[in-house]
Amino acid sequence: MQSRPLKILLTGPPGSGKTTAVMNLIAGLDPKNLAGFYTEEIRRRGVRKGFRWITLDGASGILAHIDVGRRFKVGKYGVDIAGFEKNVLPVIDPRKSAVQLFVIDEIGRMECLSDKFVTAVRRLFKSDKSVLATVAQKGGGLISEVKNYAGPELFNLTRHNRDKTIAEIIRILSFLTRPL
């Protein structure tokens, strides 16, 4: 196994395929060695209505939605911080899992409304675990902080370099594709 934990960040403009890249990367790795979550859009009749989180063990819930009236909002979306914290934070806690790689899709404005999420991500980046995360292209706080940590490899994803970038990250993470 790798001697030091890897911290890999994917960033890029909206629509560049960050989540698609993460899904392709997850598919190429041993699921027993992974924990974390990804997000996906909720669409109705072709119109985006919100976002859901899905843990790698199959649980899912609403992250944000236009019909959710919450105290926390990003644009037109009400964000369900309590549900996110209750269900997602335990799967990204390095103290509770022996997996080799934690997946976080994404470190963005909605997720960073949770102080507990911010704390959990900081703890994970300081741990001896490897991390593959998507991060918003723009933003302050934790968004810029993780990009400036010593050690993470930051990949700027575009529609044009997506396949090449995925191949490079698979090469870097190849030690995780083998069962323990």
Explain this structure to me?
This protein has 180 residues and is an alpha/beta fold. It has a domain at 7-40 and 90-176: P-loop containing nucleotide triphosphate hydrolases (Rossmann fold, 3-Layer(aba) Sandwich). Helix content is 27%, strand content 29%. The protein has five helices and nine strands; from the N terminus they run βαβββββαβαβαβα. The chain has helices spanning 18-27, 81-88, 115-126, 142-148, 162-172; strands at 7-11, 34-44, 47-55, 60-65, 73-74, 77-79, 101-107, 130-135, 153-156. Strands 5-6-4-3-2-7-8-1-9 form a nine-stranded mixed sheet, sandwiched between helices. The longest helix has 12 residues, at 115-126. The model has no long low-confidence stretch (mean pLDDT 89).
What would a concise description of this structure say?
The chain is of the alpha/beta class and 180 residues long. It has helices at residues 18-27, 81-88, 115-126, 142-148, 162-172; strands spanning 7-11, 34-44, 47-55, 60-65, 73-74, 77-79, 101-107, 130-135, 153-156.
